[in-house]
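Bug #77: duplicate submission created two jobs. Keeping one. Sequence:
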Amino acid sequence: MTSKDLVSVIIPVYNAEDFIEETVQSVLQQTYNKLELIIVNDGSTDSTPGILERLKKSDDRIKIISKYNSGVCDARNKGIEESKGWFLIFLDADDLWSDTFLQNCISLFNSDETIKAIYTKGQLINSKSERLDSFIEANTINSVMDVLKWEKGFVATPSCTIFRLPAPENIEKWDVDFSTGADQDYFMRIAAKHPIIAIDKVLFYYRVHDNNMHQNIDVMEKDHIKVFQKAKKMRFFKSFWIEQKCFSNLYWILAGSWWKDGNNKSRGIYFVILALFANPFSIIRFFK
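Kept job's structure:
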C-alpha cells in the first residue's frame, strides 16, 4: 500500500459513547479498504476511551490519539499531523457512511486528476439510526461565493467531504477560534482554491440529536458572523453588493434560527431588520 492509495480518516471524538462504535464500524466496513483510521479522543469523560481501546484491538488500521479537551478543530488538526494518506476526510463521531462511500469517491478521483475535493448527498438519521425523510442535497461548489451565499444544496460537511492532497505542507488547518462556524470557514478557504465536486447519491448519514453543536444558536450567531467578517478581511467578496447580499442571507438564517429553534422572537425580528437593511430586495422571501 502506498500513501497515494491511502485514505486518512480522522474522527475527533468527545463523549460519544452512544454512537462511536457504529461510526467506526461504518468506516471499517468500507469496500475500499486502503485506509487508516485516526481517532482523536478529545478528553472524553464517559466510556468512550474504553470503547476505543476495544475497537483498536480488532483492527490494526485504527490509531488512537488521546489528548486534553481543546475542541473539535484542534482535534482535527492533531489528526492531520498523524495522517499519512494522500486522501483526507474528517468524519464526525456520530455520523455514518454507506459501505461504498469511499469507493465512489476514489473512483471519481481516479477518473479526473484535476479533482481535489469531493462531497456527497446525505440523509438524516435519528439517535436510533433510523433514516428520516430528509436529505442534505449536494451540488458542485464552484467558488467561494457558493459557500458564502449559504444556499440550500451548496453546504458541504466534514463527514462527507474528502480531499486529495497536493502536498503535505499545503494541507489546510482548522481555525481553532471557531466551533459551530468552523465548517463554513474551512470550506470557504477550500473553495477559494478549487471546486468541491458533488456526487448526487446518498452515501453518508447525518445524525440529528440533542447534542448537535448547531443547537446552540447563541454560539452559532457569534461564530458565523465572525466567519463572514473573516471572509471580508480576506477579500473573498467580489463587490460591495455581493457582500451585502451574503450578509443578508446570513441574517435571514439567524432570524429563522432564533424565531423557530431558539424561541426568541425579539432576536429573530432583530435579524430580520438587519437582513432588510443589508439587502432591501430580500423582502421577497416573505412572498415565497
